[in-house]
From TrEMBL:
Entry-linked PANTHER family: AP-5 COMPLEX SUBUNIT ZETA-1
Native source species: Cottoperca gobio (Frogmouth)
Matches recorded under SUPFAM superfamilies: ARM repeat (SSF48371)
Positions of the AP-5 complex subunit zeta-1 C-terminal TPR domain: 526-872
CC annotations in GO: AP-5 adaptor complex
Gene (name only): ap5z1
Name of this chain's protein: AP-5 complex subunit zeta-1 isoform X2
InterPro entries cross-referenced by the UniProt entry: AP5Z1, AP5Z1_ARM, ARM-type_fold, TPR_AP5Z1_C, TPR_AP5Z1_N
Pfam families linked: SPG48, TPR_AP5Z1, TPR_AP5Z1_C
């Protein structure tokens, strides 16, 4: 895993002796006392980190050295912040100084200190103490603390909420809710610095406050949001951005305050909403730089969203590039509670309505007030998203904010049902505006979640939403990896609701499976969870055909993409035959069936063999091979599910499909054998659960078992088909089983056995497997034991078999040991058939004999006696 040089350094670090380590500590302490910290200090800190991390045991630093390393956390050079944080994470603060340690570090909070404090919280008490310190820092005024401490407080608080929400008390919830309301709704609306470029003519007039602007360049007409831009930003505007990033997580988490200190909130009775992570790029130009104000010098801000589950919640401020730009990178963790989108019919109406409700909300309790402000904030974001941004990166920011806004609206509506009626007009209009543009697909998914959660309550028609989600998204965006992940996760998280409320879901499997056909390794886990919900009595047969045709669908999707990007080959030119066939009108119907969007057009197509010939050259394409590798596992899931929902008639149809499709598969190496193995195991299982299936499908089974060619190219399923005929074609399993049926089955199997044991295999084929031969012999013996008129025919064949093999090697069996085993099995059956009554009892024992299986029960003496008798007989 490591190079030789790396292993050598790690070994040296582990084996360092205490005297040498003390000298190193002393030398590093002297270096840290100097005014200038140069490359030697950096190298020494890196070596110290290696020494501390190379062993699983926690080393303690000398107190003086630890204090000096801790002081580097507030160094103006980020390199020393990173190194000191890494070193201190490998140690623990002195127990008698832990409280002071937390206080000192929270007073100089930055992203690296935040990671350190979280990593060294060794108990819940430590986390509670840290949480209390952070909340106290929020109560202090901005002038009382460092300029950037607040911007690092919210991310670390959010991480604490993620891992230990019980550390919060009701007082903490009230305090943080009030602060979030202030930051979200009452941030200043002027830019955070002078817009003057400086110079000789600078005067008081140029230093007047300048209002923030919208993304389209107009002056902001309402309160500040994350979609407002300016040349500089004030502290409370930064906190507005940070508050919005953690708002949804806060609304989902403050239910779990400490039980001993909490009081029930009337609006908090609904269960938490499912969430997932969804990141969208955010433009470089959320804010422009300020050129003249010293307090707002150009900076590059990297903000890792508050919804991250990592221990290091960073909001680090780095020095800027010469371009004097601020880059805000917001990573939004979005829930699967998605919703619709809307815009105000009259420009500015949303702004005025939002502002008008602010005064009445002041009378609400803190939790209800933060919900109300979240509602207003999201309404304003939706209004701002309708503005034409000047840059593409700003358009990406609008999309990201739309997704988060819709998710927050969904969240507050889950908590307060009265908001549903206020929200739905906005959501409905937003959906109408965006539904025709698939570039907004990742915004439309949250809208679909909103419709799913609240559409029934609002009594709205959701048909157009589900048509978009289950029809256009998979059909046109199957190669969008991000959308595939989010859509499938949406389906998994809402599986029960979709099955109950959305009938389009189960009929959409031909479309949904396009995600699997295009990128099987990435989404196969999702379909392991989804596939059982798609199996119903009405879809089972078509779904089985579709699963078997998944490699064909994969190849067709590749051809569809290539047909739009590659030119049509010229006459005489060299091109893909399959691509030419895809473009040919005569074969268009075959490919259109594979690309259908909804079930119900038919179970399969008549010209499958033609389709497989056209796609023969695609059998070794990596995407097709990967898709084929997932099919056997999905078939197991399908059959395990279908036996719980299907009646006997449907199961009989599935048996027929298995027999037919065993010879109609795309010729991919190993694929056919794997499918035959799956078919054979589940054919056996179905017939064991419902023995009457053998009589129901006796004609098809006999036709399959009577084809000698199946012995050579379908060994696995052929063997099991013969076995179920011999085992379950009996009056004891089905009263409809007649003597004539037994006789016709016997004659078909006898003809096959005689043919394969009297001639060499066809050219290019291997000798029949010994298991096939012995299974045929056993099936004939079983059938003869039920119709004694057939016993002489079986006995004659078995006696001839013994005579033939005495003459030496035979053409139909190349291995001598296999031949001996076959002959031995024939002699056993021949001996049994001499006593017909005994033969039937042994070959087809009644259920009350086979069910206990005393000879296998280790709790009784029967196995021991059988082993003893076996040893005695073998010893002589």
């Amino acid at each position: 895993m490591y190079s030789h040089g790396s292993e050598s350094l790690i070994k040296q670090a582990r084996e360092i002796q205490e005297p040498e380590l003390q000298k190193f500590h002393s030398r590093l302490g002297k270096l840290l006392q100097g005014k200038e910290l140069g490359h030697e200090t950096v190298d020494s800190l890196q070596r110290l980190h290696l020494i501390l991390s190379a062993t699983k045991y926690t080393r303690a630093l000398p107190p003086e050295l630890q204090k000096r390393v801790q002081s580097l956390l507030s160094s103006p050079a980020e390199q020393f912040q990173v190194l000191s944080s890494a070193v201190l994470r490998e140690t623990l603060p002195l127990s008698d100084q832990k409280e002071n340690y937390i206080q000192e570090n929270t007073s100089q909070l930055n992203s690296h200190v935040a990671a350190l404090l979280l990593s060294q919280a060794g108990s819940r008490a430590d986390v509670t103490s840290l949480c209390a310190q952070l909340l106290r820092s929020l109560e202090s005024r901005q002038s009382e603390g460092p300029a950037n401490s607040l911007t690092h407080t919210l991310p670390i608080l959010n991480t604490i909420l993620t891992h230990s929400p019980e550390c919060l008390t009701e007082d903490h919830v009230t305090l943080l809710s009030k602060k979030l309301v202030d930051w979200l709704r009452y941030a200043s609306i002027t830019q955070g610095g002078s817009t003057s470029s400086g110079g000789f003519f600078t005067g008081p007039r140029s230093r007047q406050p300048v209002p923030t602007a919208e993304l389209d360049g107009t002056v902001s007409g309402d309160f500040f949001t994350v979609l407002c831009v300016g040349q500089g930003f004030t502290e409370d505007q930064w906190m507005n951005v940070y508050s919005f990033s953690m708002l949804r997580h806060w609304l989902l988490t403050y239910h779990f305050v400490s039980n001993g200190n909490s009081t029930a909130d009337t609006g908090m009775t609904s269960p938490p909403i499912k969430t997932t992570t969804f990141c969208l790029p955010v433009p470089e130009r959320l804010i422009a730089s300020c050129h003249s104000c010293k307090e707002h010098q150009p900076q590059r801000v990297h903000f890792e969203g508050c919804n991250s589950f990592t221990s290091q919640m960073t909001c680090s401020v780095f020095s800027s590039s010469p371009a004097h730009r601020l880059q805000l990178s917001l990573s939004f963790s979005l829930s699967h509670s998605f919703s619709n989108d809307d815009r105000s019919e009259v420009d500015g109406s949303v702004v005025s309505m939002v502002s008008a409700t602010s005064s009445s909300s002041r009378l609400l309790p803190p939790k209800e007030r933060v919900r109300e402000k979240a509602f207003q904030y999201c309404q304003r974001l939706i209004e701002q998203s309708d503005r034409k941004a000047h840059k593409r990166t700003d358009t990406d920011l609008q999309k990201a904010c739309l997704v988060e806004a819709v998710c927050i609206l969904d969240c507050v509506c889950e908590e307060d049902a009265s908001l549903v009626y206020r929200t739905f007009p906005c959501i409905k209009a937003l959906f109408g505006r965006l539904s025709s543009d698939l570039s907004f697909a990742r915004v439309l998914l949250p809208i679909a979640q909103f419709y799913l959660n609240h559409g029934e309550m609002a009594a709205v028609d959701c048909e157009s939403v589900w048509k978009l989600v289950f029809d256009r998204f998979p059909a046109e965006l199957f190669n969008d990896h991000f959308l595939a992940h989010e859509l499938l996760r949406f389906l998994r998280l809402n599986l029960e609701s979709l099955q109950l409320r959305v009938p389009q879901y189960t009929r959409s499997f031909p479309n949904l499976l396009k995600f699997l056909a295009w990128d099987s390794p990435a989404v196969v886990d999702d379909f392991v969870d989804l596939l059982p919900s798609l199996v119903t009595a009405g879809t089972a047969v078509e779904l089985l055909h579709t699963l078997l045709d998944l490699p064909c669908l994969s190849a067709t999707l590749v051809l569809q993409v290539r047909s739009t990007s590659l030119p049509i080959s010229e006459p005489g030119g060299r091109g893909l035959l399959s691509l030419d066939a895809f473009r040919s009108p005569s074969f268009r119907g075959l490919f259109l069936f594979l690309l259908r969007g909804e079930a119900g057009a038919g179970d399969t197509i008549d010209r499958l063999s033609t389709l497989h010939e056209l796609l023969a050259e695609t059998a070794n394409w990596p995407r097709v091979v990967q898709c084929a590798q997932t099919v056997p596992m999905l078939l197991h899931i399908f059959f395990n599910t279908v036996i719980t929902v299907a009646d006997e008639k449907l199961l009989a149809h599935l048996v027929l499909v298995m027999l037919e499709r065993s010879s109609l598969l795309l010729n991919i190496p190993k694929y056919n054998k794997e499918i035959h193995r799956v078919f054979s195991s589940h054919l056996l299982r179905l017939c064991k659960l419902h023995p009457s299936l053998v009589v129901d499908q006796s004609h098809e089974l006999l036709e399959f078992a009577g084809a000698t060619a199946n012995v050579y190219n379908k060994e696995e399923i052929y063997t099991h088909a013969v076995w179920v005929l011999g085992e379950y074609l009996s009056v004891s399993c089905d009263s409809r089983c007649s003597v004539s049926l037994i006789t016709s089955c016997f004659e078909a199997l006898e003809a096959v056995l005689f043919e394969i044991t009297s001639s060499a295999p066809p050219p290019g084929a291997d000798c029949p497997a010994p298991r096939v031969v012995t299974t045929l012999m056993s099936a004939l013996a079983k059938l003869a034991s039920r119709s004694h008129d057939l016993i002489p025919r079986v006995s004659l064949f078995l006696s001839k078999l013994r005579t033939v093999t005495r003459g030496g090697p035979v053409a139909w069996c190349s291995d001598e040991e296999d031949l001996v085993a076959i002959v031995m099995r024939g002699e056993e059956l021949w001996s049994l058939l001499k006593a017909p009554g005994v033969a039937q009892s042994v070959l087809t024992p009644p259920p009350h004999v086979t069910t206990p299986q005393w000879h296998r029960d280790t709790n009784v003496a029967m196995p021991l006696r059988l082993r003893a008798l076996t040893n005695l007989t073998h010893s002589h």
